[in-house]
């Protein structure tokens, strides 16, 4: 490799600064090494900040009260920050898809995610999305509450829940 590299802006700044010659040489060398070790596409900002790594750890306990499914999820609420443009009508337990790599942080792409469940809008029990555990009609209800409220719903919703209850008992 040629010894004469084009001088970088930092080096010329140092010269203006009246620094001792030794410092100048050292600075130049370390800058050189850093340049050699970093391939173009591997910029330092790829590294996740500690805060962001932390955010990727699922810490919210989700346990379905009906089937006892238990998962740690990333988010409970209506607007998961990692699922861009998604706004749920009710508070929802959301998990980042563990099988997908995170998108690079400079890309404002939505991440893959899984809505795990919600709270029953009547009794507030946590239920998963499984048809044996919850029913969704304008809001999530657990099946016992669904059965109790059924008669107040439009016929079409009643039919859907009845079908779901039949499937469950099969
Ligand atoms: Zn369940
Ligand atoms: Zn309920």
From TrEMBL:
Q: Where along the sequence do coiled-coil regions lie?
A: none
Domain named Cysteine-rich DPF motif: which ranges?
Answer: 62-161
The record's listing under InterPro entries reads: CDPF1, CDPF1_dom
- At the top level, the lineage of the source is Eukaryota
User: According to its UniProt record, which protein family does this protein belong to?
Assistant: Belongs to the CDPF1 family.
Return the protein name.
Cysteine-rich DPF motif domain-containing protein 1
Q: Which organism is it from?
A: Drosophila persimilis
Which gene name belongs to this protein?
A: Dper\GL23522
